[in-house]
Specification:
The structure is a homodimer.
Chain A lengths: L5 H4 L8 H24 L6 H12 L3 E2 H8 L3 H13 L3 E5 L7 E5 L1 H6 L4 H11 L3 H20 L2
Antiparallel strand pairs in A: 1-3, 2-3
Helix pairs in contact in A: 2-7
The first copy, chain A, binds a DNA duplex (30 and 30 nucleotides) through α2, α3 and α5.
DNA sequence: GCTAACTATATCGCGTGCAATTCACTAGTG
DNA sequence: CACTAGTGAATTGCACGCGATATAGTTAGC
């Protein structure tokens, strides 16, 4: 076993679980956010991960499963069933690419494209529920992005 | 609060999806954190939510299911099966309270108490993986705590 | 051409989260 | 005592996430 490198870790004595406190703040805030979205997205019939996929497609239609995964940091084990549910809603279609039959191209249907016009209330609702100023949101987002990239590096 | 311009969307023009960008940062960072914990907790045989329950019990043993839920912002639909799995690991016991037979009191077993001594590496590992200074962690945690409380208010 | 290595999805199993509902028990009220 | 409202857990049903594995399609090497 390795020795306790107390000088290297350098945790504050007053709050020995600080890292874990942050992790819990992250975990519980993420769940709270999910609940807000569940309420706002109920009208659209989508879950939050499904909504994220739609955001990707509204940005750029006709992308492969793996491309969606790169944007959302999700893999096929999560995306395949998720995409099938969205397809069952009639919002997207899934077809094998001609060039490379291994790839599955995800494309918006007419209903999928039109759904975009109902998203204004979602954006407003989340912004309102956050009770934050734009500057605060920017600050938190930047710090989270940095933290995520570091966590992914050290995964 | 009086500055509400509800007829048109009062979002910043430069970044129309800013709130959602923050939400995605929150969502994806939380998943990244969970992956770090999964690796660190594998040795202990725990998942992150299970570890959270253990943290609560190490802080205060012999609490009811609903008290655990208040600490972790989870309800019985999540906690009951979760606690049963921890019980199956031999770390806790679940007994009905004598005073009020509706309540279930969760208590640490000897193995559950002793497991606490293996958590040093988990704390160190998370802190190291975050790549952040203590000040950064404190700052993010405070902002997340504020955001969560506002989201829960507006839920 | 043949085949081994590689790649993109798909599948399986398990553990959450949570809305909705049910069950067991308690605390009244008359 | 029976009746009722309320509360704490448990249960049900569904949708993620993801480690592990499988499968089909592609490429590289010989």
């Amino acid at each position: 076993m390795s020795n306790k490198r107390t000088n290297a870790s350098a945790k504050p004595k007053g709050s020995p679980l600080l890292g874990e406190q942050l992790c819990f703040a992250l975990y519980s805030t993420s769940l709270a956010m999910n609940k807000i979205y569940r309420k706002l997205l109920r009208e659209l019939g989508l879950t939050y991960p499904q909504y994220l996929v739609m955001l990707v497609l509204w940005e750029r239609d006709g992308v492969s499963v793996s491309e969606i995964g790169e944007h959302l940091f999700l893999d096929s084990a999560t995306l395949t069933p998720l995409l099938k549910r969205i397809e069952a809603l009639g919002l997207i279609s899934r077809r094998r690419a001609h060039e490379d039959e291994r790839q599955v191209i995800v494309s918006l249907s007419r209903a999928g494209r039109e759904l975009r016009q109902k998203t204004g209330e979602v954006q407003d609702g989340v912004f309102h529920a956050s009770g934050c100023t734009v500057d605060e949101l920017v600050a938190i987002k930047q710090q989270l992005d940095r933290l995520r990239s570091r966590l992914q590096e050290n995964a």
